[in-house]
Amino acid sequence: MAAIVTRKEVAELAGVSEATVSRVFNDVGPMKEQTRQRVLQAAKTLNYHPNAIAQSFARRRSGNLGVVLPYVPKVHIFSTYYFSEVLSGIGEQVKASGYDMLLKFRVPGEESDYSSIFRSQKVDACVILGATDTPSERAELKKLEDGGFPFCLINQHMSGERFNEVDADHEGGSYRAVRHLLDLGYRDIAFLSGSPEFSNSGDRLRGYMQAMREAGLLSADAKAPGDLPAHLYYEGNYSRTSGMKAASAMHPNLKRIEAVFASNDRMAIGLMQGLREYGHVPGRDYAIVGYDDSEAARVTVPPLTSVAVPFYEMGRLAAERLLRRVGGGNETGGASESFRLKLDTKLVVRQSCRILR
Amino acid sequence: MAAIVTRKEVAELAGVSEATVSRVFNDVGPMKEQTRQRVLQAAKTLNYHPNAIAQSFARRRSGNLGVVLPYVPKVHIFSTYYFSEVLSGIGEQVKASGYDMLLKFRVPGEESDYSSIFRSQKVDACVILGATDTPSERAELKKLEDGGFPFCLINQHMSGERFNEVDADHEGGSYRAVRHLLDLGYRDIAFLSGSPEFSNSGDRLRGYMQAMREAGLLSADAKAPGDLPAHLYYEGNYSRTSGMKAASAMHPNLKRIEAVFASNDRMAIGLMQGLREYGHVPGRDYAIVGYDDSEAARVTVPPLTSVAVPFYEMGRLAAERLLRRVGGGNETGGASESFRLKLDTKLVVRQSCRILR
DNA sequence: TGAGATAATGAACGCGCGTACATTATTTTG
DNA sequence: CAAAATAATGTACGCGCGTTCATTATCTCA
Q1: Domains along the sequence of chain A with CATH
Q2: How far A222 CA sits from the closest chain B CA (Å)?
């Protein structure tokens, strides 16, 4: 291992004190140009790089933005559209802000001790992905908030709390998707929901039901899955295989279903594959709209109409807001204002829904 | 911000010295059980967590595995199959080894100063993704090697060097793909290559040509793209859009092409989309084999025959080998043995190639 | 030219750990 | 029971920085 060059060696070569070396590298205080050049030359000669760990320690700041990801053994988490897009956006902002991105894997279901992530001092702020609205997770997040640790949830709203959040208008996106189907003449529109512990699943359902109520297809007080006809409500876990499973459940009812709105593209694709095995061709025998507008939506046959969610931008904004906060270093007074952003979604029309009537 | 609890406070509460607190937490030396319990109780009472930055500093070890990724502004790098799979595998191993994963983005084309990544001491070892075989990159990697910094290349072979590498048998995978087409009766088999600066592009081409030579479809001394009939060689950059572009170039020649072997699934998919616009249906009018066996291969119509590359396992093994090395802390003597692994690839047959003859 | 003001730089120490060596406590042995 | 051996714990300091306060060098002004 190559020997570590410290500022001590640089100071000796340049004939100055270590404090001067430090000042030069941090652009602090008055500095004679001649002295500065001498130091920089010595540093270059010795190929000196400040020890980042020592800097972090002395500054009491890690220079890392933590990203907390759910850990499921053997699951290729980075290959999930949502995570990969958000991470790309975070990465973009981290790079632009001169921070590093430290990934932390948290085992879901296990005692979530979020605050220990901060107490180790290894991250200055945290983006939390895959959080769920359960009492224990809420309690853990409250502890973070009470401790003044800067964090941000993405795509997970915790109503009644003042956590930092970056979310998207899933309800509006869902509403527009279903209105699109209604405008094409479809009336018997089924809904394939994702896991209910995610707030965004509830948002999608709400948008679906609002559009259906406005079209007079549901009673005015319909609010929950239980208020839907059984043949119009299905549930998966956002995976393609759960979409294929839903196809088995849906197939017997397909005489009574004209269209399907699925809560994400993967389930839509799995559903299409499953129904194709029963001889039902998407876009011809039934209409289908996905959600997320992932790359996969563009490669299916026919290409999928889907609601585009700006996950990349969500990740980028969360990182930007957090890093602005910790970079400002303005810890004056009590709890700072929380930020909550809700980004627009957009329906991208492709060939999976023909005009019916 | 919550006050930081240090071992000093724990020591006071437990009525022991700071060294004893340290010993308890590091399970070092003889320790009276009674004393140990007193310390642990005090730590729990104060909610003490060792400061990881201070630990890293004192240990002269960061506890981070660096992952170097190419940075291209606005490109959603995590959404690329190769990167996402490798990262998932690395993440799995990092979690298992009690390390953290620090992402570093490097601007390609820019002066690649890999060694500065190590000189900051912020990572103990590095996995390098997206490296290219250019003289300047080689020089930078040689500097790392000379400095004794532990790193590993993935999916990029640098012939003549002794760098740590984890690769896959692309030549063998390619060969088997083309043999499969030959076995189905196809003779006029075109090749859609990826960018030539990646070693694995050359591997794929070699496997293709070997199979074609053995079938007597190429002369015995054919070695380079120039030795191929022009209508059988195309080039893309591994993106879906470059595959669609290749479709335009290939379409006029489709009377003379029976099958296509594409260097990755994305280009295969783009090609299929492009040719479908000209009325050519994959699996019926021509056969096609992709590479990588990404998720997308499973959702196309028809599902794509593809060569499976264990990217996830490659990432996991690279991390395992590196972390074993730095964890062993055995820096005795000079340069340690480099490791080079080449994992098997496997042809996964689906419906994109019918029996021709 | 000397006093005062300002610029530039150095000395010292803290950040919160890990641990070598010294000291004290406890146990074993003759 | 005392000496020797072993177990347990404490003291002191280094890791490589950032920065406060002290000291020195330089400039300005009367």
Answers
A1: 64-168+313-344 (3.40.50.2300), 170-309 (3.40.50.2300)
A2: 35
